[in-house]
């Protein structure tokens, strides 16, 4: 069983140090557990392509020097490392209240729909049933392998308001792969790794996170247990970040994962969220992901002709490129 760490922060910085503590502790749990980590700011990604579904899927096993505009592309190696792992621990510093942008950049350019569990499930079922739409697809079966995960955020601030979007953002990096998050932690007031190591509390918490991940290795999404601190929040992401709809029935969504509920006054007189069991709209659940697949299919059908129909209109907007600020890198590339 292999645990992969994703380090989104400074080399040997605060979040990376906590990640290493967690990984080492997880490896100590059993001789069968192996560990490695990827330092995301070092991942080379050719900058010219568009992200997401318009991007070329990075071919697995492709030579990392395979040229897209003669630039090194580390994405096949990143994707391979993620698909090979049985558990993922994602660690990030808190930058401007959120996780580091490099994490989202690497995820957007490497993962996205290619590793969406519901998309892969649908493609496999489509191929088996002989659905012609999936004739030439090559779904990556390892996406559906059971995986657990954990999240670590570290920030210099001690206040909730300067750290509150870190875990919500970290969840977005793991849910498509249907990774079951079994623990999550925010280290506050740690502007550098020295502070994180100054007393036993944070290393001890990171060790607990590592042990929690190791204890759930190999378990399916349904079997794996959440072992992190209880927040009394959403049953899926366990966080307390909500969208209030302002309806007469006091409907709310979990802003992190989309679970639905309503505000109620609890027995103690405190306002709380009562989450509904159904519909399972949380993107963390397979049902939520399948609903999204249906939504995407409808949109694809409805918009199939619009690219051809609007060619002239789009040509006009392309002319606006003359206002683009010319960067030194573009000048260097042109010369
Ligand atoms: C651009 C930038 C923005 C930051 N914004 C926050 C913030 O909003 N909240 C916070 O708690 N810490 C913030 N910090 C402090 C870092 O989270 C802190 O120094 C952390 O230890 C860095 O982690 P690293 O060593 O893993 O990179 C910021 C640091 C930088 C450089």
What would a concise description of this structure say?
It is built from 11 helices and 10 strands.
Task: Give a written overview of the molecule.
The protein has a domain at 1-229: Flavodoxin domain (Rossmann fold, 3-Layer(aba) Sandwich). 33% of the residues lie in helices and 17% in strands. It is built from eleven helices and ten strands. Helix 1 crosses helix 7 and helix 4 (117-128) packs across helix 8 (286-302). The protein is globular, with a radius of gyration of 22 Å. The N and C termini lie far apart (49 Å).
CATH top level assignment of one domain:
Alpha Beta
Enumerate how many helices there are, as a single number: 11
Low-confidence stretches: 50-58, 60-70
Rg for CA atoms:
22 Å
Basic shape: globular
Beta-strand residue percentage: 15-25%
What is the CATH superfamily label of one domain?
Answer: Flavodoxin domain
Cα-to-Cα separation, first versus last residue: 49 Å
Main beta sheet: strand number and arrangement?
A: 6 strands, mixed
Extended strand count: 10
What percent of residues adopt helix (DSSP H or I)?
25-40%
Class by alpha and beta content: alpha/beta
The ligands bound in this entry are: flavin mononucleotide
- Please write the string of helix (H) and strand (E) elements: EHEHEEHHEHEHHEEEEHHHH
Find the CATH topology of one domain. Rossmann fold
Whole-number average pLDDT?
90
Query: What CATH architecture of one domain would you give?
Result: 3-Layer(aba) Sandwich
